[in-house]
Amino acid sequence: MKKSILGTLAIAVCSVFLLSACTPAPVPSAAPSEDELVLAAKGEITNIATSGDTTSITVDGTDTKSDASYKILVAHLSTETPLIENGNVSAYTDGALSRGDEVEIYLSPLTPVTASEPPQATPVKVVVTEREDDNAQAGAAETPDVKKEFDGTITEITPDNEYYLVYVKDDEDSEPLDDLIAVVSNDTIISSEKTESSGYKPEDLKVGQKVTVTTDGRMTFSIPPQASAQTVVIHDTEDK
What we know:
Elements (H helix, E strand, L loop, with lengths): L1 H21 L15 E14 L2 E7 L11 E6 L4 E4 L2 E4 L10 E6 L12 E2 L3 E6 L1 H7 L9 E13 L2 E7 L10 E5 L4 E4 L17 E6 L10 E3 L2 E4 L6
Parallel strand pairs: 3-7, 4-8, 11-14, 12-15
Antiparallel strand pairs: 1-2, 1-6, 2-3, 4-5, 6-8, 9-10, 9-13, 10-11, 13-15
């Protein structure tokens, strides 16, 4: 009788192990379908900044009617980001998007979004809905972008890869909202008020110089705002 009971227990234990071994492994969650993606932002690209392998675009949908989750969003793109245009899908490459292009930014429901202003996220895909070149052709008779000038004093210069971030303070008591971070590159025309020469380089800019910076009027919504400098006039430099 005792041997019979032990035999029964042994069979029961073996059965438990066999059942455990046959239990299917949990199936990993599938990637979100097209229907599950969230339209996070829809609007015009107002700024493009590149850092290493990442390109950050600011999408402003303030004047666009849509069901997007955010009016303004900074989307971080890489060569792994799908770019869709006219039904064709390709991987994003540097220079594939331009300021003025109209795009839609899609996120998955689990995509993390920063609590910054504006919010930032890495999109699942980007859809190009209209090119800035198309707008230019449609409005060929319209006047070009109005130039905008900023006068102030350089208080800080920060090298950033091929660019220089030049902090131009409006005046001593100005608020950051009234100041400007000018993005200066080798394409920026830098000249002196005292000479007609425009042979200055970004390296010639110094803290303390009084300058006039001309932009195309497009700038980020950060504080202080940031804009690409088209021209810089130095008011208190010695002749070269």
